[in-house]
Amino acid sequence: MLAERRHHLILRALRSGGPAAVTDLSEQLGVSPATIRRDLVKLEEDGLLTRVHGGAVVEEGDQPFAEVAEVRVTEKDAIAERAAAMISDGQSVLLDIGTTAYRLARQLHGRRLTVITSNLVVYEELADDEGIELVLLGGMVRREYRSLVGFLTEDNLRQLHADWLFLGTSGVRPGGQVMDTTVVEVPVKRAMIKASEKVVLLADTAKFPGHGMAKVCGPEELTAVVTNEPVDAVTHTSFQEAGVEVVVAGKVQA
Q: HTH deoR-type domain: from which residue to which, for each copy (predicted)?
């Protein structure tokens, strides 16, 4: 069995049944425990699972917005402040779903900007700011995560162009690939990338490697990454080779 196929089956087993032991996975897939251990190491390096004693688990994705919004607020605010400084008045800005994009929206009050978003919390934050031209994308409402998705959202994006996209993520692999836990959000994120002149990834240190099963884009589609601490050497090299600027809140990572 090819390694890629084993990896798919391992992740499927973990998502359907919770934690799984090396011995159980070995029996299910008909390979040696040593092979399973190597697979688990590789999948953990890619941010797709967490190894535990005797086996592995996959973290639950897609937490409700209200829960995620209370986590690492200081780090998100530092990232948001630095990202806001990149934008010039008069420009158009696409804000992705997620809590870091919401923290960025809070930094934009009083600016003369056009803000385009599928993030309902961003819309609510900026709705009363008369200096901001606010464009809310259509689509199917995901109530728990306060976002709009689907073909209507993607079709709206095909008719628009933005100077900046500030993109969220569930995790970043060492090769620089941007990942997401929720497949339904990925087409919208990809449509946002196509609609934007510059793409900036907002990712605190917990997102390296973070987690996520669906690839949003590779590093070559990013302009910059804004984070709150220097990223690991392997990921930083991947960004460098792709020409991506790594901005640590307050400085640029060399």
A: 3-58
The half-sphere exposure of 247 on its side-chain side, counting CA atoms within 13 A, is 20
Residue 34: exposure state from Cβ atoms within 10 A (0-12, 13-18, ≥19): exposed
Residue 136 CB partners (closer than 8 Å, separation 6+): 117, 118, 120, 123, 148
CATH topology of domain 67-248: Rossmann fold (3.40.50)
Tokens matching residue 80: 């948001």
Residues 228-234, mean pLDDT to the nearest whole number = 93
What proportion of the chain, given as a percentage, has pLDDT over 70? Answer: 90
Q: For 18-68, what is each residue's pLDDT tens digit?
A: 557 898 899 888 999 999 999 998 877 765 677 877 888 765 554 455 555
> Whole-angstrom Cα distance, residue 193 to residue 145?
20
Spatial distance between the Cα atoms of 107 and 100, rounded to a whole number of angstroms = 11
Quick one: tokens of 44?
């953990």
114 vs 106: CA distance, rounded Å: 14
